[in-house]
Write a structure and sequence with these properties.
With 496 residues, the chain is an alpha/beta fold. It has 13 helices and 28 strands.
């Protein structure tokens, strides 16, 4: 195939970021390129137009390539539930709730799905930009992995190795990784040092040493890009958001075990008076009580998240909390009175747990059918539009009354629950904050409570793809990369 594969010396090295930037760079040059990651392990999921699940990271990369996200861009998604098991999503649908026989899966259904996806891409695009996972130097996985060098061999594409300078040890990481690759070392045709801070002149000796020692060309040093963010697959890269204003809204986001779809909160970063932090067991009581709002995000295991809340006393803190509480998906379920799982669909420790009883709803996990769909509608009782997507097994029965009304109207059906002035509310709708109408409504209720002036922000969340591609074009040897991508064609094809 025409293409390249971006592999990293570790998780969090910036592979997703670099692939997205290269997709936009090549797209702006006029080439038809497609992002691809054979297997992703992430609880950050996106629902495609046809109701299939893929990693949010590949959806972002599709956007960078001006493409609609499709399941062939990420045929396998592993969604961790516990330390030792994951839900397998194959071609966008639930294949198995567990990775118990995963080695057998990779060598049969898994690799067949990968080959089919790569074949489709090769027939419909000029080139593929493939992202690896973690590190290709995990020698204990080499016999059955289908996400790093195995895929480079399947697609027969050269590899560019990415190292994170910011975290330190990048020279050792590069040289150590190359040493462990065995025969696959010859596939590595370039090295990129990523997330560099400081004076680039001070790194030139490191670049020369790397090329002399490894014999592999360093294609560039990419600077650390402050304030340039894309939705990431890796919870290692969760970032907080701070405001320099004196009058600001302080929001805490519960960092559940198995937190999912944390990109739901990226839209809050466009507000200059919002600040959010992630809440874990180390937060002080004083800090918690200073919050204006707490968000309970999605989680891959609602039961584990609820138990975590209780283990660290957050259930009592939330019940007595004087600010605003908002739940999304699993966080929404936790706010209800009860969660039942009589057939151990999501967990193997409990059949039912009492929720926080802050919203009048009950949730049952007994359905075998997972809801994955894009939706649109209105904020309840208004003509203000709303859109997003749902991903959940549990079904919630909501008990509306004069105090608790539906949050939204989706396909003429009530969805979510909204208490008085939105003090406690929740929804299954991922991406709710991406809607200006809803984000403004929720934040203005908090501003009003703090006696701040209400205001509205009407803006499309700026995608950073052109900025990233511009920085890559200045930092990397783009001509060399293009030659790597198209070298098997004899000559580089003309852009479309």
């Amino acid at each position: 195939m025409n293409g390249i594969m971006i592999q990293g010396t570790s998780s969090g090295s910036g592979k997703t970021f670099i692939v997205a930037g290269l997709c936009r760079l090549l797209t702006n040059m006029g080439f038809q390129v497609c992002p691809f990651k054979s297997q992703n392990m992430s609880n950050n999921a996106y629902v495609t137009h046809d109701g299939l699940e893929i990693s949010t990271a590949q959806a972002v990369q599709a956007g960078a390539a001006n493409l609609r996200p499709e399941v062939f861009m990420n045929p396998i998604l592993l969604k961790p539930r516990h330390d030792k098991s994951s839900e397998i999503i194959l071609n966008g649908k639930v294949f198995s709730p567990s990775t118990k026989n995963y080695r057998n899966f990779t060598q049969n259904e898994g690799i067949n799905a990968v080959r089919k996806a790569l074949n489709y891409i090769s027939q419909n695009f000029q080139a593929v930009i493939i992202e690896g996972a973690g590190s290709p130097a995990e020698i204990n996985l080499n016999s059955f992995e289908i996400v790093n060098m195995r895929i480079s061999r399947e697609a027969d594409v050269p590899v560019i190795l990415i190292a994170d300078v910011d975290r330190g040890g990048s020279l050792a990481a590069v040289t150590g990784t190359l040493e462990l690759l065995g025969n696959d070392r010859k596939r590595v045709k370039g090295i990129i040092f990523n997330m560099f801070r400081g004076d680039i002149e001070l790194f030139k000796d490191a670049v020369k040493w790397t090329e002399d020692y490894t014999g592999v060309k360093v294609l560039g040093v990419v600077p650390f890009m402050n304030g340039v963010n894309i939705a990431d697959e890796d919870s290692l890269n969760i970032t907080e958001h701070h405001s320099s204003l004196s009058k600001k809204i302080l929001i805490g986001i519960m960092r559940f075990p198995g937190i999912s779809n944390f990109s739901d909160f990226d839209a809050l970063k466009i507000e200059n008076d919002t600040e959010f932090i992630y809440i874990d067991e180390n937060i002080t009581l004083k800090k918690f009580n200073s919050l204006d709002a707490v968000i309970l995000p999605g989680t891959k295991n609602t039961f584990s998240a609820l138990k975590w809340l209780r283990d660290y006393g957050f259930d009592a803190l939330l019940r007595s909390f004087r600010g605003f509480i908002f739940g999304i998906c699993g966080g929404f379920q936790i706010l209800g009175s009860e969660i039942a799982d009589d057939y151990y669909h999501e967990n193997h420790d409990f059949t039912r747990l009492d929720g926080l009883n802050l919203l009048p709803l009950k949730t049952n996990f007994n359905s075998e059918n997972k809801i994955t769909r894009q939706v649109s509608g209105f904020i309840y009782g208004t003509d203000k539009k709303i859109s997003g997507y749902e991903i959940h097994f549990g079904r919630s029965e909501c008990y509306y009354n004069h105090e608790f009304l539906p949050m939204f109207l989706i396909n003429d059906e009530p969805e979510g629950i909204c208490g008085h002035e939105m003090r406690v509310s929740g929804t299954y709708l991922h991406g709710a904050f991406n809607n200006d109408n809803f984000r403004n409504l929720w934040l203005n209720n908090i501003r009003k409570n703090k006696n701040y002036g209400e205001h509205e922000t009407h803006t499309v969340i700026n995608n950073p793809y052109d900025e990233i591609s511009g920085i890559l074009s200045k930092s990397l040897d783009v001509d060399f990369i293009v030659d790597l991508i198209f070298h098997r064609a004899g000559t580089t094809p003309q852009p479309v």
